[in-house]
Amino acid sequence: MSEPVIVGRLGAVYGIKGWLKVNSFTEQPDGIFDYQPWLINDGKGWREIQVTGWKRHNKSLICKLADIDLREEAQALTGADIAVSAEALPSLPADEFYWRDLVGCRVSNTRGYDLGVVSQLMETGSNDVLVVKANANDAFGQRERLIPFLEQQVIKSVNIQDRIIEVEWDPDF
Protein backbone atom coordinates (compact mmCIF):
# COMPACT_ATOMS: atom_id res chain seq x y z
CA MET A 1 0.00 0.00 0.00
CA SER A 2 1.25 3.50 -0.77
CA GLU A 3 1.74 6.18 1.86
CA PRO A 4 -1.62 7.16 3.42
CA VAL A 5 -3.05 10.56 2.49
CA ILE A 6 -4.31 12.58 5.45
CA VAL A 7 -7.82 13.87 4.79
CA GLY A 8 -8.86 15.01 8.27
CA ARG A 9 -8.46 14.74 12.02
CA LEU A 10 -10.68 13.45 14.79
CA GLY A 11 -11.75 16.16 17.20
CA ALA A 12 -13.40 16.18 20.59
CA VAL A 13 -15.73 13.51 21.91
CA TYR A 14 -19.42 14.13 21.35
CA GLY A 15 -21.80 12.60 23.87
CA ILE A 16 -21.37 9.38 25.83
CA LYS A 17 -21.84 6.73 23.13
CA GLY A 18 -18.49 7.06 21.35
CA TRP A 19 -19.25 9.74 18.75
CA LEU A 20 -16.42 12.11 17.72
CA LYS A 21 -16.23 15.47 15.99
CA VAL A 22 -14.49 15.40 12.60
CA ASN A 23 -12.23 18.10 11.18
CA SER A 24 -12.31 17.47 7.44
CA PHE A 25 -9.54 18.66 5.11
CA THR A 26 -11.48 17.74 1.95
CA GLU A 27 -12.79 20.43 -0.40
CA GLN A 28 -16.38 19.56 0.51
CA PRO A 29 -16.21 18.81 4.26
CA ASP A 30 -18.71 15.94 4.19
CA GLY A 31 -16.79 14.41 1.26
CA ILE A 32 -14.50 12.80 3.84
CA PHE A 33 -17.23 10.21 4.40
CA ASP A 34 -17.04 9.10 0.75
CA TYR A 35 -13.73 7.38 1.52
CA GLN A 36 -13.89 4.01 3.26
CA PRO A 37 -12.22 2.53 5.16
CA TRP A 38 -10.48 5.25 7.09
CA LEU A 39 -6.96 4.77 8.34
CA ILE A 40 -6.49 6.14 11.86
CA ASN A 41 -3.10 6.84 13.39
CA ASP A 42 -3.57 6.53 17.14
CA GLY A 43 0.14 6.83 17.92
CA LYS A 44 0.76 3.12 17.39
CA GLY A 45 0.64 3.28 13.61
CA TRP A 46 -2.09 3.22 10.98
CA ARG A 47 -5.07 0.92 11.39
CA GLU A 48 -8.25 0.53 9.38
CA ILE A 49 -11.56 1.55 10.88
CA GLN A 50 -15.07 1.75 9.44
CA VAL A 51 -17.40 4.71 9.89
CA THR A 52 -20.79 3.30 10.90
CA GLY A 53 -22.61 6.63 10.96
CA TRP A 54 -22.17 10.36 10.57
CA LYS A 55 -24.24 13.53 10.64
CA ARG A 56 -24.03 17.27 10.68
CA HIS A 57 -24.22 18.92 14.07
CA ASN A 58 -24.56 22.70 14.01
CA LYS A 59 -21.69 23.78 11.72
CA SER A 60 -19.55 20.71 12.29
CA LEU A 61 -19.55 17.01 11.51
CA ILE A 62 -19.67 14.10 13.94
CA CYS A 63 -19.16 10.40 13.32
CA LYS A 64 -19.55 7.00 14.92
CA LEU A 65 -16.73 4.51 14.39
CA ALA A 66 -17.01 0.72 14.45
CA ASP A 67 -16.29 -0.86 17.85
CA ILE A 68 -16.05 2.53 19.60
CA ASP A 69 -19.08 2.57 21.90
CA LEU A 70 -17.95 4.41 25.01
CA ARG A 71 -16.87 7.99 25.60
CA GLU A 72 -13.57 6.75 27.06
CA GLU A 73 -12.77 4.70 23.93
CA ALA A 74 -13.51 7.73 21.74
CA GLN A 75 -11.41 9.98 23.99
CA ALA A 76 -8.34 7.86 23.16
CA LEU A 77 -8.77 8.81 19.47
CA THR A 78 -9.13 12.58 19.82
CA GLY A 79 -6.53 14.36 17.74
CA ALA A 80 -5.80 11.27 15.61
CA ASP A 81 -5.18 11.84 11.90
CA ILE A 82 -7.69 10.41 9.43
CA ALA A 83 -6.16 9.12 6.21
CA VAL A 84 -7.08 7.03 3.19
CA SER A 85 -4.90 5.06 0.82
CA ALA A 86 -3.76 7.09 -2.18
CA GLU A 87 -5.48 4.56 -4.45
CA ALA A 88 -8.85 5.58 -2.95
CA LEU A 89 -8.52 9.13 -4.29
CA PRO A 90 -10.22 9.85 -7.61
CA SER A 91 -8.07 10.13 -10.74
CA LEU A 92 -7.56 13.67 -11.98
CA PRO A 93 -7.38 15.08 -15.50
CA ALA A 94 -3.85 15.47 -16.92
CA ASP A 95 -3.67 19.20 -16.09
CA GLU A 96 -4.69 18.78 -12.42
CA PHE A 97 -2.85 17.36 -9.41
CA TYR A 98 -3.11 16.87 -5.68
CA TRP A 99 -1.13 19.02 -3.24
CA ARG A 100 0.77 15.91 -2.15
CA ASP A 101 2.07 15.62 -5.73
CA LEU A 102 3.72 19.06 -5.46
CA VAL A 103 5.61 18.40 -2.22
CA GLY A 104 9.19 17.52 -3.10
CA CYS A 105 9.11 19.19 -6.53
CA ARG A 106 12.09 21.36 -7.47
CA VAL A 107 11.17 25.00 -8.15
CA SER A 108 13.08 27.17 -10.59
CA ASN A 109 12.28 30.53 -12.10
CA THR A 110 11.91 31.27 -15.80
CA ARG A 111 15.55 32.43 -15.92
CA GLY A 112 16.75 29.03 -14.65
CA TYR A 113 17.56 29.98 -11.03
CA ASP A 114 17.01 27.03 -8.65
CA LEU A 115 14.77 28.39 -5.87
CA GLY A 116 14.62 25.15 -3.84
CA VAL A 117 12.14 22.36 -3.13
CA VAL A 118 8.46 22.52 -2.12
CA SER A 119 8.25 21.48 1.54
CA GLN A 120 4.53 22.12 2.02
CA LEU A 121 1.55 24.14 0.83
CA MET A 122 -0.58 26.60 2.75
CA GLU A 123 -4.13 27.62 2.13
CA THR A 124 -4.79 31.33 2.57
CA GLY A 125 -7.96 33.27 2.08
CA SER A 126 -7.06 34.48 -1.38
CA ASN A 127 -4.85 31.74 -2.86
CA ASP A 128 -2.71 28.73 -2.04
CA VAL A 129 0.99 29.27 -1.30
CA LEU A 130 4.00 27.06 -2.04
CA VAL A 131 6.45 26.91 0.87
CA VAL A 132 9.82 26.42 -0.84
CA LYS A 133 12.83 25.38 1.24
CA ALA A 134 15.80 27.14 -0.33
CA ASN A 135 19.08 25.42 -1.13
CA ALA A 136 21.76 25.55 1.59
CA ASN A 137 23.98 27.69 -0.65
CA ASP A 138 21.29 30.08 -1.89
CA ALA A 139 23.00 33.14 -3.41
CA PHE A 140 20.41 35.46 -1.88
CA GLY A 141 20.62 34.02 1.64
CA GLN A 142 17.04 32.82 1.65
CA ARG A 143 16.03 29.88 3.84
CA GLU A 144 12.46 29.70 2.71
CA ARG A 145 10.32 31.34 0.07
CA LEU A 146 6.55 31.74 0.05
CA ILE A 147 5.37 31.69 -3.55
CA PRO A 148 1.69 32.25 -4.35
CA PHE A 149 0.17 29.47 -6.42
CA LEU A 150 -1.33 31.70 -9.08
CA GLU A 151 -1.45 29.78 -12.33
CA GLN A 152 -0.31 31.74 -15.40
CA GLN A 153 0.67 34.81 -13.32
CA VAL A 154 3.32 33.16 -11.09
CA ILE A 155 3.16 29.43 -11.84
CA LYS A 156 4.22 29.00 -15.45
CA SER A 157 4.34 25.20 -15.62
CA VAL A 158 4.06 22.13 -13.41
CA ASN A 159 5.70 18.91 -14.58
CA ILE A 160 4.76 16.18 -12.11
CA GLN A 161 6.65 13.52 -14.10
CA ASP A 162 9.98 15.37 -13.84
CA ARG A 163 9.05 16.92 -10.44
CA ILE A 164 9.74 20.50 -11.63
CA ILE A 165 7.69 23.67 -11.16
CA GLU A 166 8.63 26.72 -13.21
CA VAL A 167 7.68 30.10 -11.76
CA GLU A 168 7.93 33.78 -12.64
CA TRP A 169 9.53 34.81 -9.36
CA ASP A 170 12.48 37.00 -8.36
CA PRO A 171 15.04 34.92 -6.37
CA ASP A 172 15.78 37.74 -3.90
CA PHE A 173 12.14 38.00 -2.86
Describe this structure in words.
5% of the residues lie in helices and 43% in strands. It is built from two helices and 13 strands. Strands 4-3-7-1-2-6-5 form a seven-stranded antiparallel beta sheet.
Keywords summarizing the entry:
173 residues, six-stranded mixed sheet, mainly beta
Going across the biggest sheet, name each strand in turn. Answer: 4-3-7-1-2-6-5
Q: What is Rg?
A: 20 Å
Structural class comes to: mainly beta
How many angstroms does the end-to-end distance come to?
40 Å
Query: Could you give the order of the helices and strands?
Result: EEEEEEHEHEEEEEE
Note the total helix count.
Answer: 2
- What share of the residues lie within helices? under 10%
Count of DSSP strands: 13
Question: Outline, from the CA principal axes?
Answer: elongated
Largest sheet: 7 strands, antiparallel
**What fraction of residues sit in β-strands?**
35-45%
Low-pLDDT segments: none
Mean pLDDT: 91
SSE layout and pairings?
Layout: E1 5-14, E2 19-24, E3 38-41, E4 46-49, E5 51-57, E6 60-65, H1 71-75, E7 81-84, H2 99-102, E8 106-109, E9 114-123, E10 128-133, E11 144-148, E12 155-159, E13 164-167
Parallel strand pairs: 8-13
Antiparallel strand pairs: 1-2, 1-7, 2-6, 3-4, 3-7, 5-6, 8-9, 9-10, 10-11, 12-13
Summarize the structure.
With 173 residues, the chain is mostly beta strands. It contains two helices and 13 strands; from the N terminus they run ββββββαβαββββββ.
